[in-house]
Each structure stands twice: as C-alpha cells, then as structure tokens.
Write a structure and sequence with these properties.
- This protein is mainly α.
- Among the domains are: 36 residues, CD2-Gal4 (Irregular), CATH 4.10.240; 173 residues, no CATH class; 176 residues, no CATH class.
- 56% of the residues lie in helices and 1% in strands.
- A two-stranded antiparallel ribbon has the order 1-2.
C-alpha cells in the first residue's frame, strides 16, 4: 500500500488583517480568522500583479503621496504643556489591530493582565474581572430560588420598608420610576393578593434592590424576588414591551451589575436596550412620525431616565467585558432634567465622553487628554456619582497608557486627587452598607493605575487604597473581594521586586564606578556631599538635558524623591 507524504500546507498569501495581527492565514476570502473574529478581510495585491496593471494602463511608477489626516486629527501636533508627552500615535483608520488595542485598554481586566505581564510574566495573575462587583454571583448561590407571587414572598409592610430603602439609596442615582405611581401600584397589589399583575416585575425588582442595600447576607426572599421577576419578564417577551416591562428590565440589569457575573449582566443590558428601541423610547415624540411608539402616555422625564440608565449600564459593561454595545440609530432622547435630591443627571452627563472612548472611533492622544481634562473638571457630589466619574477617568488613563503617554504636572495632580476621592467614596459605601458595583472595583483599579503612574505621590496613596479594600473584605467577605485583595497585594509585591532588582543593579554599578572615580578612586561614604567640581559637573548636566530644565538646581536633582517624580510609566 502506497503512502503519500503529507507536507504542511501553508498559504502563499495572507490577508492584511492576519499580517497586521501576525496570525496564520488560510488564504481564503474571507479567511477563517476573519470569519471567526468578525474582522474585515482584504488582500493586498502583489507587486508583480500591480506592475502588470500599471503597464496595461500605461501608468508610470510614482511615489505614493501621504494620505491626509482626517479633520479630527489635523492641525499642529504639538505636545500639550504641563500634561502629557509621547510620540504621535494617531491612526487614520481604525484597523482591526488598533481596534483590539482600544478594546483591551477600555477593559479593566485586560489592563490588569497586561500590567502584570509587564512586571513579571511568570507570576502574572490570570485574565479576570477582579472586583467587578463585591459578589460575582455569590448572593444567588446561597440558595435555590423559587418563583412565587410577590404577595407570598414579602408582606405589605416589608414591601413598604424595602421600597423606602430603594428610593433612599438607589433612585437618586438611577432615577427612572415615578414614586407616586409606584406606591399606587404597591398599595393596590395587596388588595388582590391571589392574582398576578405585569407590574409585579417592577415591585420584585425594587424589593430585591431594597434587600441588597439593607442586608449584607441575602435573605431567602431576595432570591425568590429576582427569580419571580425573571419568569414574568421572560413571559412578557412574546408581546410588545410596556413601560413597566422596560423599567423591570432596567432594575434587573442594575441588580445583576451589582451582584451577578459579567456575562449575565451584559446579556440583560443588551436585552434592555433592544426593548428600549422596540418601544420607541429612544426618540423624542414627533407628531408627524409614523414610527411605532408606546400606546400608553409616558412622562418624558421617566422615559429619558429609563433610556439614559439603560444606555449607561450597557456601555460600561461592554467596555469592561470587551464586548459590543447595543448601538441604537437615530437616537434623539435628551437627558432628564435635574430634580431635588437626585444626581442621576451627574451620572448620565458622563455618557457623551463614552462615545469618544468607543473602540470603533479613531481617537488620538490629544483628544483623549482634552476629554480627561473635561472629566476632571466636572463636579460630582455623591459617592455613586463620584465613582462613576472616577471610573471614566481610569478608563481614559488606560487608553493614554496604551498610547505610551506619560501624565505629569497639573493633570497628574488632578488624576491622583480624583483617585483619592474615589477611594474615600468607596469607603463611605462600605460604612453605609451601599454595595454599588464600583465599591470594590474602583479601589482595585486605582491601585493598578497608581502602580503604572509610579511616582512618589502615587505610591503614597496605595496604603489608603489597600486599607479600603481590606475594609470591604471585612464587611463583604466573598470570594470576589478576597481575590481582589490578594491580587492587589500580588501586583504590589511584583512591582516591589522589580524595583529592588533595578536598585540592586544600580548599586552594583556605583560600587564599580563611584561618583569621584575620575579623580579619586576612593569610594565615597554614603553621607558625603559632592565636591565643588562634582557639583559643577552635575549642574551643567542638569542644564544640558532637555527634560531637566524645569528643575530647581542640584538640590532638587539629588533629592531622594526625584527618581520617582520624574514621570516615567512602568514598562
């Protein structure tokens, strides 16, 4: 029997995407890699084929003219003063490779992984959404939920108490339910306790969030409330969505963002956005429009709050998980008006900055820096709103880091100040028993950014941030919070070891080449001061180096903290 020798098959050509990503290409059109990851697949013509085309047309070879930059990045590319510096990294098109880098920079999980790999590849923690919330599904796993009538799960008195917790702690941040209308439904519900009503899903969602904000450990009723709302909402999927159905979906999404896994929460947020579009809530009403809108009358402020909160949750979950967000075309909904006791407008006011961070958008370093300055200048008053502001600030810092930008000066001071404010807001949440999703996430991400900034000022803030994480673990002792604290400690340890290694190498060099080696081979003592000729040499060195002209002489150059304050990111 004859055997045919099998040789490895290799494609003679590779598509542009596989060439850029350095991946094996099968040469198909589209290739398998582009089909799998939904990339645009195209092939560059070979030089011989291009030459034949030119000759056939009678063309002559010419030098390629530079492609003009788009309007958004045209103009002088001077480095902004007192803020950040780096080579120009502007791209004229959002290639798959650039898109992937942007997705990674937006995701806190990917950033942590790349940070650890840059410090110590062998001991780096795995890719994981550390401290995405304080529970990551732990509350749901404490028992077996049962779907029941809400009147069988909680009493009317309990429902009133839980709703008060919701409107005191959650509604000021996520305002999309009219309290008067809610209380009318709640009061009427217990008069007919044996029949189910579509508004039950809203009642269950409000009660579940009330349980979350009033109990460190979930009562059995909390799980049954979530399960009952889920069953009702799944049943309602067969018909056109009502305003109550969409409100219940937003409540479910918010609950899962604070307690569940990233997958379940992201899926719920996507469904919510599709329901918003199906109901026509994304458009301000137009008299002459024939497009579908809700048959029921909806308060404009409630509609705008629903759309805004749903979009806020979907956008940030997509950034965190590195997945797509739901883009609704022709959206004309404006933000809700401010109302006494509410700071929903502060949170939703951050949405325009999210559009700038979209991975599909080409954003250069100058635009990112301008966005960062605008975010830092905003005034946010309450802890949940402050953490939302801090979250987008950290995301922009990650994006700038991906472009090899270095923050310094006033903008660095503002970043560190907001990071400190965010940590203290998280500490306040622990003390008041308000387990918002950013309560554990922001302190963990702040530690990562502080290690990357790597200055004496940033390093000095790590202790307070770690103390905050420890407080969170003490109150919400879950696998998610414990893992976040351990991972933060590991990152600090790896960073310390790398610093010690660098310091040891520098020490060995100075043992061989002491400061006075040129004129006096005697090794100087650790407390000796530079001689006049040595001082003159160092002063001239400080003047000659372009990066040192802003420093105040030899005393500052030899200051102990100078090596940290120079403003160079960790590799």
């Amino acid at each position: 029997m004859a055997y045919v020798e099998q040789h490895r098959k290799r494609s003679k050509v590779a598509c542009e995407t596989c060439r850029e990503l350095k991946r094996k290409c099968d040469g198909a059109s589209p290739c398998g890699t582009c089909v799998r990851f939904e990339y645009h697949c195209s092939y560059a013509e070979s030089s011989a084929r291009r030459k034949r085309k030119h000759l056939a047309r009678g063309d002559h070879p010419v030098l390629a003219a530079p492609i003009p930059a788009p309007d958004s990045v045209s103009g002088p590319q001077s480095t902004p003063r007192n803020s950040a510096s780096a080579p120009s990294t502007t791209s004229n098109s959002c290639s798959p490779h650039n898109n992937l880098l942007t997705v990674e920079a937006n995701s806190g999980a990917a950033f942590v992984r790349k940070l650890a790999l840059g410090i110590d590849p062998k001991n780096a923690p795995r890719m994981h959404l550390f401290a995405w919330n304080a529970f990551l599904g732990a509350r749901e796993s404490t028992g077996t939920p049962v779907s029941r009538l809400i009147t069988d799960i909680v009493s009317e008195a309990d429902m009133v108490a839980l709703s008060k917790v919701y409107f005191a702690d959650v509604d000021p941040c996520y305002g999309f339910i009219k309290r008067q209308e809610f209380e009318q439904h709640m009061n009427a519900r217990w008069r007919l306790p044996d029949s189910e009503h579509p508004y039950d899903a809203v009642l269950c969602g409000v009660a579940a969030l009330g349980c979350l904000f009033s109990h460190v450990h979930p009562p059995a009723a909390e799980l049954d409330l979530i399960q009952s709302a889920k069953i009702i909402l799944e049943r309602e999927m067969n018909q056109a969505p009502s305003i109550a159905t969409i409100a219940a979906w937003v409540l479910r999404t918010a609950y899962l963002r604070m307690t569940g896994t990233s997958h379940s929460a992201w899926m719920a947020s996507c469904i919510t956005m599709h329901l918003v579009e199906a109901a026509g809530l994304h458009c301000e009403p137009i008299k002459d429009s024939v497009l579908h809108t809700l048959d029921e009358d909806v308060d404009p402020e409630i509609r705008r709050g629903l759309v805004g909160v749903a979009r806020h949750l979907n956008v940030w979950m997509s950034f965190d998980t590195g997945r797509s967000r739901v883009m609704i075309h022709n959206m004309t909904t404006i933000f809700p008006s401010t109302r006494p006791g509410s700071f929903t407008h502060e949170v939703l006011g951050l949405l325009p900055y999210c559009d700038i961070l979209d991975p599909e958008k080409v954003t250069d370093a100058q635009e990112l820096e301008a966005t960062l300055s605008s975010v830092l200048d905003r005034l946010h008053t309450e802890p949940p709103s402050v953490l939302a502001q801090c979250n987008i600030m950290l995301c922009i810092c990650r994006r700038l880091k991906s472009l090899n930008m270095v923050l310094y000066g006033k903008i660095l001071e503002q970043v560190l100040a907001l990071a400190r404010k965010g940590v203290r807001a998280a500490q306040n949440m622990v003390e008041t028993g308000s387990p918002w999703h950013h309560m554990a996430n922001i302190p963990f991400q702040v530690i990562c950014i502080l290690l990357v900034i790597d200055t004496s000022a940033s390093i000095s803030q790590i202790k307070e941030t770690m103390r905050c994480l420890q407080t969170i673990v003490a109150k919400y002792n879950t696998e998610a919070t414990v893992e976040a604290l351990r991972t933060a400690s590991l990152l600090i340890l790896l960073h310390q070891k790398r610093k010690q290694k660098c310091a040891s190498e520098l020490h060995e060099i100075l043992k061989i080449y002491p400061i006075g080696a040129g004129s006096d081979m005697r090794e100087p003592s650790g407390t000796s001061q530079p001689q006049p000729e040595e001082s003159s040499w160092l002063e001239s060195l400080a003047i000659d180096l372009p990066g040192l002209e802003g420093f105040g002489g030899l005393e500052q150059l030899l200051n102990e903290g100078f090596a940290w304050d120079f403003g160079n990111n960790a590799p």
